[in-house]
């Protein structure tokens, strides 16, 4: 074993994992420990590694060759690709141990676990020997100083205590803060229900909306039900209208209607329009919030709009030129301009002068197969959806199409492996 022999678990989150020849395996998402009796330090069993396909697998610590500040190197490129499943006597350090309430044996002061220190022994085993803790205070109180204590200097970290006691989620959210919404969703899916709900309670509506959009369908419905009607409506308002419509479309009619009633009218209106279309048509796939400009807008204005970091790359790839009103359904649709064309034009030119009025449009009733063929034929990642009266209704992006083409449950099970690593027998 090379590299560090003492590390803190939170420092491992997101580190790249590589095989002995430098081949990328995935990223560290958590550390699995086996709880032991009495005051014995837990044994580190291995790492939860997320592959490029989003599947999470278990890599035993015996296969870890080195832990460096910026990467984890394995001793072999042979790993078991079976999906990770947590066993009853195991704990996830980041997912479950952080934010746990403990008491110092010496003073009986209540503390919160901030991080866990791992150390390799002479027998090559890894143990959680130390804890970074902070005194528990009220939500508005100033955070106390960080202390590092030995594992056996605290009480309250038994398996039953951690899984049964209520926890906050402040420290776990600090780990999630640097992660993309899709990665947070993957982590949330793997957490026990108790811990999942604690994280959901702690996330603000905007961040939770982003995460819910990336969850498997069953998890989406479970979280929405847990939130209660009022907060569920607030989170739906923060979601992209097409994602909100997809989720509401899976709910019982009574529940769906109730949530739409609780949403603000200006937020529910585009969702209601999307729900009028079948989910597997251009109307059901589209987002009603593409980048729309008036004919007298300049190229410089168009480029400024597509720089918005909240736009997905696909949605930012094309602007649509329409007569007022600019909100969908718009006035008469005049054409579209790809971002590559915008970059080639003088900033002072009008977008109407460079708009492509001849590109085929998708009717809202176009089937998923027709939409797929459209993207293949025109080599685009974004396409206009226009009705019979020449009003722009929205835009379909290639990521929306892929979501419906991939196998059911792909967010939960991960994508199929195209090149499997050797699996032990």
Explain what you see:
This is Mg/Co/Ni transporter MgtE (Contains CBS domain). Residues 286-353, 355-413 form the CBS domain. The chain is of the alpha+beta class and 425 residues long. 33% of the residues lie in helices and 24% in strands. It has helices spanning 9-12, 93-97, 159-164, 170-176, 181-190, 193-202, 205-212, 217-227, 229-238, 241-248, 253-262, 265-275, 282-285, 299-306, 339-344, 368-378, 398-405, 410-413; strands at 2-3, 6-8, 16-18, 24-34, 43-50, 56-60, 64-68, 71-74, 90-92, 101-104, 110-120, 126-135, 146-150, 154-155, 291-293, 318-322, 333-338, 382-386, 392-397. Strands 1, 2, 3, 4, 5, 6, 7, 8, 9, 10, 11, 12, 13 and 14 form a 14-stranded mixed β-sheet that branches. A 3-stranded mixed β-sheet has the order 15-16-17. A hairpin with a 5-residue loop joins strand 11 (110-120) and strand 12 (126-135). The longest helix is centred in the middle third of the chain and has 11 residues, at 217-227. The radius of gyration is 25 Å and the shape is elongated. The two termini are 24 Å apart.
């Amino acid at each position: 074993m090379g590299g560090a022999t003492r590390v803190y678990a939170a420092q491992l989150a997101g580190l790249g994992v590589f095989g002995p020849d430098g081949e990328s395996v995935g990223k560290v998402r958590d550390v699995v420990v086996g709880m032991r009796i009495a005051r014995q330090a837990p044994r580190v069993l291995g790492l939860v590694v997320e592959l490029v396909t989003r599947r999470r697998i278990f890599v035993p610590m015996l296969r870890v060759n080195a832990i460096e500040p910026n990467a984890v190197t394995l001793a072999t490129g042979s790993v078991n690709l079976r999906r990770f499943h947590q066993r009853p006597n195991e704990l996830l350090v980041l997912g479950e141990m952080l934010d746990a309430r403990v008491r110092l044996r010496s003073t009986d002061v209540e503390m919160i676990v901030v991080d866990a220190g791992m150390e390799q022994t002479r027998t090559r085993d890894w143990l959680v020997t130390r804890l970074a803790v902070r005194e528990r205070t009220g939500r508005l109180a100033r955070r106390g100083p960080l202390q590092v204590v030995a594992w056996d200097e605290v009480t309250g970290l038994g398996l039953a205590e951690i899984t049964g006691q209520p926890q906050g989620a402040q420290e776990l959210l600090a780990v999630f803060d640097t992660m993309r919404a899709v990665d947070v969703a993957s982590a949330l899916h793997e957490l026990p229900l108790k811990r999942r709900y604690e994280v959901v309670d702690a996330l603000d509506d905007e961040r939770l909306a982003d995460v819910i959009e990336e969850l498997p369908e069953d998890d989406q419905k479970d979280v929405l039900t847990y939130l209660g009607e009022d907060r569920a409506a607030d989170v739906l308002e923060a979601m992209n209208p097409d994602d909100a419509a997809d989720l509401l479309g899976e709910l019982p009619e009574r529940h769906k209607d109730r949530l739409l009633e609780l949403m603000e009218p200006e937020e529910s209106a585009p969702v209601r329009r999307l729900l009028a279309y079948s989910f597997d048509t251009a109307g059901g796939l589209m987002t009603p919030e593409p980048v729309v400009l008036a004919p007298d807008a300049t190229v410089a204005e168009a480029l400024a709009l597509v720089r918005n970091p909240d736009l997905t790359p696909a949605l930012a790839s094309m602007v649509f030129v329409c007569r007022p009103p600019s909100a969908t359904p718009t006035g008469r649709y005049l054409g579209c301009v790809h971002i590559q064309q915008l970059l080639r034009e003088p900033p002072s030119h009008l977008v109407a002068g460079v708009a492509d009025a001849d590109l085929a449009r998708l009717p809202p009733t176009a089937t998923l197969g027709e939409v797929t063929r459209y993207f293949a034929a025109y080599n685009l990642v974004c396409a206009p959806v226009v009705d019979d009266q020449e009003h722009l209704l929205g835009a379909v992006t290639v990521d929306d199409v892929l979501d419906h083409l991939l196998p059911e449950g792909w967010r939960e099970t991960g994508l199929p492996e195209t090149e499997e690593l050797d699996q032990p027998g």
